[in-house]
Each structure stands twice: as structure tokens, then as C-alpha cells.
Specification:
The chain is built from 42 helices and no strands. The protein is mainly α. Helix 7 packs antiparallel against helix 21, helix 14 runs antiparallel to helix 20 and helix 28 packs across helix 31.
């Protein structure tokens, strides 16, 4: 039987009664939404409990329900408190407990979006520098107005710098503007009524026919002014480059200021001192004049009430808002200190705005977003603590992925967010815009607009299972200080595994992280060093089709690798897919349950002829999962194989469990159970001993195995051996 298990399983699968149950289960498990749905269908429920050998307790549905609803990531959950591994395996086969709850965003999705949102502002400055560098590098090469306008980057640069939307400006009209005489009131530029066009006309030296008036299209001063205008106009906030321009402007102008009204009347100077002295952003020019004209000796003056007395002292204005004869608005030292304060504080207001917007997004998405309608509810309507001063949720999301709000309607955005980005045929993928696909992947809305469970590379149950198996593999047979040290290392490894797996988006991401790969291989009882030698093997495994009988995954020696591959929610291209992630049961859960059902059925059928064969097959299947003597003692079938193999008395089970475990160590080394050859040897001895004890065989080999037909070792002798061993 053991020589050709696959063929035996195929025969069982082809049996009409077995095939009917398998087909029924596969056809209906996908319809199950809740644990009650599952347990309410007798055939589904009975199939599953039989697969895991729990049919003897299947009648206790309240008990089984608690098992299924157990959160395997919680060490104190119901299933994890059970000593019988079958209950944990049964819970892990389904998605009913602790396998992720519906959420508009997972922590990883939220972190990515907020990170991109904050970084988008830095991208603005980088982009502005890139475009300015392009302009500086190419303006000297322009020979005529057509050459300038035919370069779309340069055309957009000059228009944006003068606050004109390039979308609605034709090249012909722009040509007429650039060839206008800025000093002629009747020129196209001056007649346009738009300040930006007037500015542009004065920043170039083209003749009426579009040729150059001099050697270049712009003088150095004209280029400098246009580049400065771009840095001041295009980014949505004051960048470091813009701040330097503002500093230069302030220091060049402040010497000519003679009254407070001149200072507050220049928007750029006024914005500069407000940033430098942390004045309220809402402070008007009129109110600022009152501040500077305050009597600082009066506690009730405007300056003192607003806490701006220190700012007033940085200037030399009198209470009339003018300057004493011969006194500048600021001394050189005062100017120096003001600029120092500005460079230290110019970004504080922007930074606070970004932080508030991010916090508002996080607060709202983590406290009540259940549908797409909630997502589009405005901050004002939602009565957010930060109210309507913050950008809307969808505006933050669009900015994070580089999408301008005016390029997509709310109606289309709804269709994007309720589309499955992991389905190549979905609406969002039909748009051929990678930004929109990434945006859709940042949220978890189903096709009806309701929040659903985040799609991750591994389900929470599978992560918990790997964590549990890894701990067993790394701590088996350790005691004392070694065990304590190992537990600390295991916990650190597990924390890394859980945290990092949430960020894995592709099979390549997973395979590129040696720590993750090593963790999973170790959890499956495989030596990571074996797979380091052939780096391409795992790549090929993840690209193979588990349903293809000829793929490398279906070679007998790769059975555990196949289990690993199908445990991930990846397609054969290594991308995330919902095809493997069912509501009640993932693809790996379904495949493993079907395989377990077939194996359990085979064992039961063989058991009808020989219970010894059933026990041997069961032991062969479960041996590699045994990591402690207590695993053997806690499973009555495994324990029976051991006691039969070594002709141990039934009274051994009445011994103290620790002494019982110590006694069993004299006969079996747990490490041997990880070695298929040693397991095979043990089972050969078991079958011989089983036959002898049940009167089905009598041969010289049995005499050798049993020491010439001795009855066996009694419990007292075992105890004595254990005590001798411990001295």
C-alpha cells in the first residue's frame, strides 16, 4: 500500500460514493458565507469532520463551532488550548475565525497611502527642479517661436509659471502672445485681459515674425524671473527653493519700506513675516497694521492680546506706523534674524496641514467607513473633529497616487474603487492606467460598495499556522536555558514574519526576502539551505500550475513545496489574486481538505480489513508533524502505534505524564519521525508486531523483533528504566 499511495488515493477518488461527496463539497463550499451556513449543510459539515477524523465528535456542534471560530493568532483561543492538533488543523482549514475582518483598509494599505500622500509634496519640489533644469538647458537652443512651442515641456513650463492652464491655450494664440509688443496697449497680450499673457510677452525677445530679436529667446534675467515664477506658482506649498527666492525678495525689498501699510500691503512680504514670526495664517493685513501700531506697554493692546509683541519688536515702527527719521524698518541684524526665523518656520504651517489631513483621513477611515457612500461623505457632513478645513478623503487618496481630482469624476472614481484590481478583465484594468489600479488596491470595497476583507499574500489563518509550526520546529526537544533563548529568537522571527508578510504584493517580493522564505520552509520542516543551492527552483515552483499533473509541484518529493505554493494568494505569474481566497475557505484550505478526506477515506477503508493498516497509514501521514513526546501521547492512534511497535503494556498510560514521556524516550527519538526512512522502518516493525499480537502471523523475524517471543516490558520495568536514565 505504502509503495503506491498516489495510485491508491486515485482509486478511492474514483469510487462513485466518494466522488459524489467530493463534487458536492467543491460545488457548494463557495456559497457558504458564515459558520452557521456551513454547519447547517449536513453534507458539507459531515465531509469536513470526516476529513479531519473528527466524526466521532461531529455531533457536538456547539463545541465544533467554537473550534471553527477560534482565532489561531491568539494563543488563548479555544482551538489553541486543545492538546489535540486535529482541532487546530480543522480551524486552520477555514476562514471563520481570526482570518481578517472586513476593513476599508488594512494597516499596510493605510501606511502605504499616507506615506505616498506625504511624499507627494516632496515629489512636487523634485518635479519643479527637474522641469526648471530642463528649461535652463534648452532655452538657449531655441531659434524661433515655433521651435519653443513645439516642445510641449517648455510650453507647459512657461504657461504654468504664469498661472495659466495649458489645456485651453492653442499654439497659434500663444504664438501671437509671444510675438506681441508688451509696450503696445493694443497688442494681443495686452488685449487678452489675462495678466499671465502680459507677463509672458515681456519675458521673451521674439520679433513679430517669430524670429529672435537678439542672440537668444530670453536674457539671463528673463530666464531667472520665469524659473522663479515657476517655483513660486506651481508647487502647492512653499518649497525649499521657493523659500530661498522669498528670502532674497524680502531682503531686497525691506530696505525700501517706510510704513507698516507698505509692509502689509505687499502680499509676498506680508506672507514672509507671518511665517517668520508664526503669526496666525488667518491674520489680515488690516489686523496686522493694528498689531504693529500697538502700545506694547499696554497689556490690553492688540499685539499683547495676540501674543505678537515679540514680532513687533523686530521692527522699528512707531505707534503711528511710520519710521523715525533716518531709521530703517529693520537693522541688518534684525533682517538677519528675521530670515533665520523664516527659514526655520516657513514649512511649519504646511507640515501641520499635511499632518492634520493625514490624521483626519486615518481617523475617519478607522471609525465608521462601511460603504463607498461613507467614503465620499464630506468632512463637514461627517462632523469630523478637523471639520471641512481638511481635504476630502478621496482628494487625499487621489493625490497619494498622483491623480488630479479634475481628471476623474466621482462617478468614475466609484466604479474604480468597487472594481476588482486583481481581475484582469475588471473595469479599472480596462482603463490601462496603473495609477488607478494602485488606487483600487489601496481600498477594500466589493462590487456592491461594501467593505470586505483585505487581500494579502497569506490569509491570517495561514500566517498563524506557519507561526505555530515554526515555533514547534525551532523549539522541539529543547529545555532550560536553550528553550528560553530559542523562544526569544522565535518570537523575534515571528514578529518580523507577520509584519513583513502584510507588505508582500508578489511572489517576487516573497522570494527576495531570505528571512521570509527561511521561515516558511522551516515551518514546513524543510531545510532552507537545501533550496539556497538551487535559487531558481522556488521561482519555478511559484510559477508552476498546481493543477497540472506534470508540473514540478506534483512530483512526490515536492509535496511540501506544493503546500507552500498553494498557501499563497498568487496566480502563476506571481501576482495577488482573489481566485484563491474564498469566503469560507481559501484554495489551499479546499485542496488540503480534499486531500485529507481522500487519505482519511483510504485509511478507513483499509481499516475495515485491517485496523493495523489503518493505524500504520495514519502514523505515516502524521509522523512529520510530531514535535514532542506529548504530541504522541495526546493522539491515541499514534500512541497505539508506538506501544504496539515496542510491545509496551497498556498500564503505561496510567503513569505520570512526565515519567511516561521519559520512559518513551528510551524507545523512540522524536527527531527520527522527521526522517521518512526511519518512519518506514518503524512501521515495518509495527506491522509485524501488530500481526503477532493479533494472531495473524508467526515468523522467525517476529522472534527477532520481540526478543524470542517475550511477552514485553511491564510498566514497573519502564518506570525503573526511566528513573535510572534520569540519575
Amino acid at each position: 500500500m505504502n509503495r503506491d499511495i498516489p495510485a491508491a488515493l486515485d482509486r478511492v477518488a474514483a469510487q462513485p460514493a466518494t466522488k459524489r461527496e467530493i463534487d458536492y463539497y467543491n460545488a457548494n463550499i463557495g456559497k457558504v458565507k458564515t459558520v452557521d451556513d456551513f454547519m447547517g449543510d449536513y453534507r458539507l459539515y459531515n465531509y469536513a469532520v470526516q476529513a479531519y477524523g473528527l466524526d466521532d465528535v461531529g455531533y457536538a456542534k456547539a463545541f465544533i463551532k467554537k473550534v471553527l471560530e477560534s482565532d489561531l493568532s491568539d494563543d488563548n483561543s479555544f482551538a489553541n488550548r486543545m492538546s489535540d492538533q486535529r482541532y487546530k488543523d480543522f480551524a486552520a482549514a477555514f476562514n471563520f475565525g481570526g482570518n481578517g475582518t472586513a476593513d476599508v483598509q488594512s494597516e499596510a494599505q493605510e501606511d502605504e497611502l499616507i506615506g505616498l500622500y506625504k511624499h507627494s509634496f516632496a515629489d512636487e519640489e523634485t518635479s519643479a527642479k527637474t522641469e526648471a533644469d530642463y528649461w535652463n538647458a534648452n532655452i538657449g537652443k531655441v531659434k524661433n517661436v515655433s521651435g519653443l512651442l513645439n516642445d510641449s515641456r517648455m510650453r507647459d513650463f512657461m504657461l504654468k509659471a504664469t498661472d495659466i492652464d495649458p489645456t485651453y491655450v492653442s499654439k497659434d494664440f500663444l504664438k501671437s502672445v509671444l510675438t506681441s509688443d508688451p509696450n503696445d496697449p493694443n497688442s494681443v497680450a495686452n488685449q487678452s485681459g489675462i495678466a499671465g499673457f502680459k507677463t509672458l510677452a515681456g519675458l521673451f525677445d521674439f520679433k513679430a515674425d517669430g524670429t529672435l530679436s537678439g542672440d537668444t529667446a530670453q536674457t539671463a534675467d528673463q530666464t531667472s524671473k520665469l524659473v522663479e515664477a515657476y517655483h513660486l506658482t506651481v508647487p502647492s506649498y512653499v518649497t525649499e527653493t521657493a523659500a530661498k527666492y522669498n528670502k532674497a525678495y524680502y531682503e531686497s525689498k525691506i530696505g525700501s519700506i517706510t510704513t507698516v501699510s507698505q509692509l502689509t500691503g505687499d502680499p509676498r512680504l506680508f506672507a514672509y513675516i507671518k511665517s517668520a514670526f508664526n503669526m496666525p495664517a488667518t491674520l489680515s493685513a488690516t489686523s496686522a497694521e493694528s498689531v504693529f501700531k500697538s502700545n506694547l506697554d499696554d497689556p490690553k493692546s492688540v499685539a499683547n492680546i495676540l501674543g505678537l509683541a515679540s514680532a513687533v519688536k523686530k521692527f522699528n515702527f512707531n505707534q503711528g506706523g511710520t519710521l523715525p527719521s533716518g531709521t530703517p524698518a529693520q537693522s541688518d541684524e534684525q533682517i538677519k534674524l528675521t530670515s533665520k526665523d523664516y527659514l526655520a518656520n516657513y514649512s511649519s504651517s504646511h507640515d501641520l496641514d499635511v499632518t492634520n489631513a493625514a490624521n483626519n483621513f486615518i481617523n475617519r477611515t478607522t471609525s465608521g467607513i462601511k460603504t463607498i457612500d461613507d467614503f465620499f461623505l464630506s468632512n463637514k457632513d461627517d462632523k469630523s473633529p478637523l471639520n471641512d478645513k481638511q481635504p476630502e478623503l478621496y482628494e487625499v487618496a487621489l493625490r497619494a497616487y498622483g491623480i488630479e481630482p479634475d481628471t476623474i469624476t466621482k462617478s468614475d472614481l466609484r466604479k474604480v474603487l468597487t472594481s476588482d484590481p486583481y481581475d484582469p478583465k475588471s473595469y479599472v484594468n480596462s482603463l490601462k492606467d496603473d495609477r488607478l489600479v494602485k488606487l483600487a488596491k489601496a481600498f477594500n470595497f466589493d462590487s456592491d460598495g461594501k467593505i470586505t476583507t483585505p487581500l494579502e499574500a497569506l490569509s491570517q489563518n495561514q500566517i498563524s499556522k506557519y507561526a505555530s509550526d515554526y515555533k514547534k520546529q525551532k523549539t522541539v526537544l529543547l529545555t532550560g536555558a536553550q528553550l528560553t533563548a530559542a523562544k526569544k529568537t522565535v518570537q523575534d522571527d515571528t514578529d518580523y514574519f507577520k509584519e513583513t508578510m502584510s507588505k508582500v504584493k508578489t511572489a517576487s517580493d516573497f522570494l527576495a526576502d531570505k528571512k521570509l522564505v527561511s521561515f516558511v520552509l522551516t515551518a514546513e520542516g524543510l531545510d532552507p539551505k537545501t533550496y539556497e543551492k538551487d535559487k531558481d527552483f522556488l521561482k519555478k515552483a511559484f510559477a508552476a500550475d498546481p493543477d497540472d499533473a506534470k508540473s514540478i509541484l506534483n512530483k512526490p518529493e515536492n509535496a511540501k513545496i506544493k503546500d507552500i505554493v498553494v498557501s499563497f494568494n498568487f496566480d502563476t505569474k506571481g501576482n495577488l489574486t482573489r481566485d484563491t481566497s474564498g469566503v469560507a475557505q481559501s484554495e489551499i484550505g479546499l485542496k488540503q481538505l480534499n486531500a485529507t478526506f481522500l487519505r482519511q477515506t483510504l485509511e478507513n477503508q483499509e481499516g475495515e480489513t485491517s485496523d493495523g493498516v489503518r493505524l500504520a497509514l495514519y502514523f505515516e501521514r502524521k509522523a512529520s508533524g510530531v514535535t514532542s513526546m506529548f504530541d504522541l501521547m495526546g493522539d491515541k492512534a499514534l500512541f497505539q502505534v508506538i506501544t504496539t511497535t515496542f510491545n509496551l503494556p497498556s498500564g503505561i498510560s496510567n503513569m505520570d505524564v512526565d515519567k511516561q514521556a521519559e520512559a518513551l524516550k528510551q524507545f523512540i527519538d522524536i527527531k527520527d519521525l522527521q526522517n521518512p526512512k526511519k518512519v518506514d522502518s518503524l512501521l515495518k516493525r509495527f506491522t509485524a508486531m501488530y500481526d503477532q499480537q493479533n494472531g495473524t502471523a508467526n515468523s522467525p523475524s517476529l522472534s527477532i523483533l520481540t526478543g524470542g517471543g517475550a511477552v514485553g516490558i511491564n510498566a514497573d520495568t519502564l518506570l525503573s528504566i526511566a528513573q535510572l536514565r534520569s540519575r
